[in-house]
Amino acid sequence: MMIHLFHEAGSGPYARLHCGHKVMRAVIGRNGLTTRKQEGDLCTPVGTFALRQVYFRADRLPAPRTSLPLAALSPHDGWCDDPHSPLYNQLVHLPCPDRHEELWKADSIYDLIVVIGYNDDPARPGAGSAIFMHLQRPNLSPTEGCVALEKADLLHVLQAGAKAITIHP
Predict the structure, then answer these.
(1) How far is the C-alpha of 122 from the C-alpha of 156, rounded, in Å?
(2) What is the pLDDT of residues 20-30, one digit of tens each?
(3) Residue ranges of the domains in the chain?
(4) Do the Cβ atoms of 43 and 26 come closer than 8 Å?
(5) Pairing of strands 77-80, 91-93
(6) Are the C-beta atoms of 45 and 128 separated by less than 8 Å?
(7) Where do the TM regions start and end (predicted)?
(8) Is residue 159 classed as helix, strand or coil in its secondary structure?
(9) Which residues touch 39 (CB under 8 Å, ≥6 apart)?
(10) How many CB atoms lie within 10 A of CB 120?
(11) Which SS3 state, helix, strand or coil, does residue 155 take?
């Protein structure tokens, strides 16, 4: 199943995600959408991408129902966002000498992560990394380029069998 994200001009960081007949509010990157994603630009990339993997905090959530590959996070998991690293845009185990983002967070936004297959086959240095679907912040603040959903909506997407996302310009 394919899910679709639509953003309307003037709607700020808010978009609509369509999964079957259900329409959900999504939050996107602070600087909107782009067809020319670059590391650190705070934009969400446009295109059609496979959903690769699901990670979850087993200390906070039961394993979600999904047909995607599933793994529990550990406090030693991170994601490399260093364009000079051979591990760029990949899961890394901490400590890691290269620049990275920690996936085990004090807040809840990474309690459930779906890796969007953007810039990963192969990764082009500097073209953007760590593009996920994850949980929204309570204040619905923009992401750094990811797609954020309410927990119930992200669980619905996984249970519906979504395998790919099209982020429409």
Answers:
(1) 30
(2) 999 999 999 99
(3) 2-167
(4) no
(5) antiparallel
(6) yes
(7) none
(8) helix
(9) 81, 83, 126, 127, 128, 129
(10) 17
(11) helix
CB atoms within 10 A of CB 31: 14
Residues in the chain: 169
Mean pLDDT of the chain: 97
Residue 169's closest CA among 43, 39, 41?
A: 43
Distance CA 15, CA 27 (A): 6
pLDDT tens per residue across span 86-110: 999 999 999 999 999 999 999 999 9
53 DSSP β-pair partners: 115
**Catalytic sites, residue numbers:** 134, 146
Amino acid letter, residue 116: I
Q: Six-digit token pair at 8?
A: 């309307």
What tokens does 150 get? 């309410």
**Identity (one letter) of the amino acid at 120?**
D
